[in-house]
Write a structure and sequence with these properties.
pyruvate-formate lyase- activating enzyme; 14 helices; Rossmann fold; alpha/beta; 520 residues; five-stranded mixed beta barrel; nine-stranded mixed beta sheet; binds iron/sulfur cluster; OB fold (Dihydrolipoamide Acetyltransferase, E2P)
């Protein structure tokens, strides 16, 4: 039976598509000569909803026995865009691939599967991926057996999935941020089927524990403490692509950190779109981020970091716990986005300039040596010269030492997308340049204040420019270069800062790590 598809879903343009079949497993259509099996497609309305249903935690093994040999003799390649959450999702997907027998490659000519783990936060990130998919068409013609997949935040956008179906029919599978654990089944279908498979969940699922992870760096590890975000800042696509805030159980987080400490990892970064909201969704206990940090502080591991914070949920209890120090390092990344209360209101950030400055001061007063870094957006709709000036003055007053800076990028589906994007691009670019000049100045000034100080550095590796020069980071996440030895990698050394550069400082070692001498 063939039927016009107009009524399929208004988010998708299926003009010219034919429905081939429709059953429990979804629908199969033929579009531009390619059969497409749609298990589920992204639905913006559902992504916007925040249900009250209880989040379940599943402790399952994601790779069934019958798929453990699917990848024997085959290689995989994952391109990752965007934030640490995406990097960590890639670690999980690497773990799944390797449990299926695949091995990693950086060479697209020998890969059996190539995955794009995408970011939707800014337009240029999306343009990059579409550019890549265009190039991939040629490779697919040369190697039709290659499996090409798109996942991550872009896959959660209906307009993106539609564009791939219409223009990139050589893509074999599209899945989202909520069903990474389904990768083995999607690969199985892609391997044995000729159809493009689309399986994007618009309703965030439960929390899947015990997923394998393949971490490439044996020194530092990311640990998710929560997923999603309910803040709905007006410019941000994340609440739609990552779903509602849901916290992992503290016992699971603590067990993972303990296990990583046993494996010899030296630094853990606790991850979440907004870690300060940790525990707000628990119904059976009153246990928040400060409590978790207090418990993790007791684990024998040199350094604990966390990102990303939101000023709205940054509470007194957390400040008290962080003030105890120990392995809880003194670097706090606290995105402000704008220094103008008016602009913050239009962004729906739900705090004022004054509240941010007050919080920054409390953090710097209560937590010894605390350093603050931030995120800033310039050129948000309606931003006046005076309001931009307020951002510059706030950076100084809050004692910001460095920042990630962005030009506002309208995201379809976000409330800000409907606001008049009335700041001319030249003005946006000029403001970004002025802001970046200030960030360079503040970074250099902070590094100059470190000259002569003795600080602890975690040795991370050789500096990019000179083999004998090692590089590492201070507890406050500042980059340090110093003469040293590769066998010190992973060790803590005491250095005295000798010179300041804009983006790093030079130092001399004043006490070598104990272990190294044994090696010597
Ligand atoms: S806090 Fe705001 S900017 Fe951050 S992920 Fe959530 S909605 Fe986006």
């Amino acid at each position: 039976m063939t039927k016009e598809t107009k009524d399929f879903s208004k988010y998708f343009d299926f003009s010219g598509a034919k429905v081939i079949s429709e059953d429990q497993s979804g629908k199969t259509i033929r579009l531009n000569g390619r059969d497409i099996h749609i298990v589920s497609e992204p639905d913006y309305r559902q992504e916007k909803q925040r249900g009250k249903e209880e989040i379940q935690v599943h402790y399952e093994n994601a790779v069934p026995d019958e798929l453990k040999s699917l990848g024997l003799g085959k290689k995989y390649l994952i391109y990752t865009y965007g934030c640490q959450m995406n990097e960590h999702d890639t670690e999980v997907m690497r773990g799944l691939f390797e449990e299926m027998g695949y091995t990693a490659t950086e060479d697209r000519m020998e890969a059996a599967v190539i995955l794009y783990n995408t970011c939707a936060v800014r337009e240029n990130a999306e343009d990059k991926v579409f550019g890549e998919l265009g190039h991939m068409k040629v490779l697919k013609q040369q190697r039709p057996e290659l499996i090409l997949g798109v996942c991550g935040c872009m896959s959660q956008e209906a307009s993106v999935v539609n564009r791939i179906m219409q223009k990139h029919a050589h893509v074999d599978m599209i899945f989202g941020t909520h069903n990474i654990h389904r990768l083995p089944y999607l690969l199985q279908e892609a391997h044995f089927g000729k159809e493009m498979v689309i399986d994007v969940w618009s309703k965030e699922g439960d929390i899947i524990e015990n997923l394998p992870k393949k971490r490439t760096d044996g020194l530092r590890a990311w640990v998710n403490i929560m997923y999603g975000c309910d803040k709905f800042c007006t410019y941000c696509i994340v609440p739609y692509t990552r779903g509602k805030e849901r916290s992992r159980l503290p016992e699971d987080v603590i067990a993972e950190v303990r296990d990583l400490a046993r494996q010899g990892f030296k630094e853990i970064t606790l991850l979440g779109q907004n870690v300060n909201a940790y525990g707000k969704d628990f119904t059976d206990r009153s246990y928040r981020f400060g409590d978790l940090m207090g418990d993790i502080q007791k684990i024998d591991i040199p350094r604990i970091r966390f990102t990303t914070s939101h000023p709205r949920d940054f509470d007194e209890h957390l400040i008290e716990v962080l003030a105890k120090g120990g392995n809880l390092v003194e670097h706090i990344h606290l995105p402000v986005q704008s220094g103008s209360t008016e602009v913050l209101k239009r962004m729906s950030r739900k705090y004022t300039r004054e509240r941010y400055l007050e919080l920054a001061e409390r953090i710097r007063n209560e937590i010894p040596n605390a350093t603050l870094t931030t995120d800033v957006i310039v050129g948000f709709p309606g931003e006046t010269e005076e309001q931009f000036e307020e951002t510059l003055t706030l950076m100084r007053e809050a004692g910001i030492t460095s920042a990630y800076t962005y030009i506002y990028s309208p995201r379809e589906g976000t409330p800000a997308f409907d606001m008049a994007d009335d700041v001319p691009i030249e003005v946006k670019q000029k403001r970004l340049a002025r802001l970046n000049a200030l960030v360079s100045e503040l970074s250099l000034k902070h590094h100059q204040e470190l000259v002569g100080q003795v600080i602890e550095v975690m040795v991370e590796g050789e500096s990019k420019n000179k083999a004998s020069v090692m590089s590492g980071r201070s507890r406050t996440n500042k980059l340090i270069h110093f003469e040293g030895k590769t066998e010190w990698i992973g060790q803590l050394v005491q250095v005295r800062v000798t010179a300041a550069q804009t983006w790093y400082v030079k130092a001399e070692v004043i006490s070598e790590p104990a272990v190294a001498s044994n090696a010597g």
